[in-house]
Amino acid sequence: MSLELLKSPEFQLLLWRTERAPLLRRELDARFVPRGFTADEVWDVLTAVRKGQAFYGPIVEFAPEGVRKNWHTMPASLRYYLRQITRKTQKGSFLDVLIRERSGSRFVTQYYIEEAVANLKQDGFETDYESIRAAFSGERPCMTRAERLAVNFHGIMRNLDSYEELPFDRSVLLRFYQELTEGLSDRELSGPETVPLLDQHAVSFRDDHVVDVIVATGNDLNTEPVQDPLMVSMLVNCHFWRLSPLPFCNNLMGCIASRFYLLKKGLPAFRFLPKTKILEDWKAGSFFSGSARYSLEESIVADGCETDWTAYYDSFMSIMLHMLQLMEESLASLKESDDLILDWIASVEDLNHRQKAILRRAVLSPETEFSISEHKAANGIAYSTARTDFEVLVARGLLLRTTKAMANVYLCVPDLRVSLARLMGSEPSR
Question: What's the pTM value of the predicted model, to 2 decimals?
């Protein structure tokens, strides 16, 4: 390695540039090439210097011959994206608060559907958005293996908070796998072949020991120094689709396990981000309104028997931050609309406080099933009073009465927000 090159102003400028943001070989121009050296020489020395500062993937020792070893550096741009994503998805953030208020099974379902469909495709199942949406919403029973897996996946992700205190260990990961594949036999799952998004980097290990590698990564034991949680979550996800440690559904399991890891790290809202769908769209050529600095293909830089993933991580995190911002804007609009409705409900004089509480819950969690017995017990009132609370709302066209297990159950009407908005216009508060 030439000391003259290392000390040259041009090379020092180049180092400063790569510390700020990724740089591809095609972007290396004359500003960074000192007299007497070629661009290839400069690039080779730069790569060697950067490798000395790099993080290497923790599965290097398990990868067979011929599989590229992974490394990346942490430019300032990538650190910025990681900080902003953390801020937006951490516990108590705007996204987290709104999601917890609307924690019902139908909230933000679009993102779950997109993520479920994308992962199912990578796991080899054929399906589409509308089929999964119908299964999610309960419009009809599950009719295919993919729909059953999607509904199981949705149930796990919805209730992920209940796992927060559990350890990231083999038993919990296998419990997720059992819940994901519940209702399906090995024979029903054995048909599809995995079709990983980054297929040129996939390897099938089917080695039970690999689960222990994933567990070690999820406990921050496989990176030195310990990396940012978002970067570790990417490794957890990658281990599943790259090494395929489980018999089936490794992409879905990678999605679940990485989100579980981030939940335990205090980033619960990240699970609403359709990461696999974003990656799928990026691979197809989307630059997400300019947020992606590079295409997926050019961001994964082959270097002999190794691969530099710096540009990939930088671009991918930039895209995910962009998508989180769009999600925030969408939810801010929903919150503004909901706040108007909830304020109106609070001001209606001919509804008692219990009925107002019912309507508030129905607005925020429209799939809620209300029962007379639960309402009676929660409020310490007589059965007849509890029943009247609901029947008044039925008469006003806000709830529907039905039966379940021989008992009356009350559901909110379809498009409850629309019905309430109409009442707000026709029956102003007194």
Answer: 0.85
